[in-house]
Amino acid sequence: MVEKVGDVIGKLLVVSLFWFSGIFDMALNWPAVARSLAAQGFPLAAFFGAAAMALEIAVPALLFIPRLERIAWCVLAFYCLATALLFHRFWPLTGVERIGASFHFFKNMAMAGAFSLLAGRR
After folding, report:
1. What is the rounded distance in angstroms from the CA atom of residue 82 to the CA atom of residue 88?
2. 3 state SS of 95
3. Which H or E run includes 99?
4. 37: closest CA among 59, 25, 110?
5. pLDDT tens digits for 54-84?
6. Domain-by-domain residue ranges, the chain?
7. How does DSSP assign 1-52, residue by residue?
8. What residues contact residue 13 under an 8 Å CB cut-off, 6+ apart?
9. Cα separation of 48 and 1, whole Å?
């Protein structure tokens, strides 16, 4: 029973990160998100921004559906890896910008690793 409660609390904490980002950072600031992606040179910026927003909202909910949990962990792991490589490229930066970007890069890489481990359990 305690293990199940711990699983639910852990999933809720993971879900809160993605839902906050998907809803408050992306959905509520939609035009700015699309413009930011376009300014960074991403093709089909509006499409990929909308896809990222949908992923951040929908996929974490799948963690609570036992048959889809493993797929959700895999998708979230890949997403964290991709966002680290695409949006937190610290290597060409210097100073304070490098510190912030490297923190977010390695945070995303750590989450990708943890989610990969979770995908492989059981």
Report:
1. 10
2. helix
3. helix 95-120
4. 25
5. 999 999 999 999 999 999 999 999 999 999 9
6. 1-64, 66-122
7. -HHHHHHHHHHHHHHHHHHIIIIIIIGGGHHHHHHHHHHTT-TTHHHHHHHH
8. none
9. 40
Q: Give the pLDDT of residue 64.
A: 96
Interatomic CA distance for residues 113 and 107, integer angstroms: 10
d(CA 115, CA 74): 7
Residue 74: partners with Cβ closer than 8 Å, 6 or more residues away: 115, 116, 119
Vertex 49 angle, CA 92 and 85, to 5°: 30
Paired tokens of 19: 């839902």
Q: Which residue has the tokens 């293990």?
A: 3
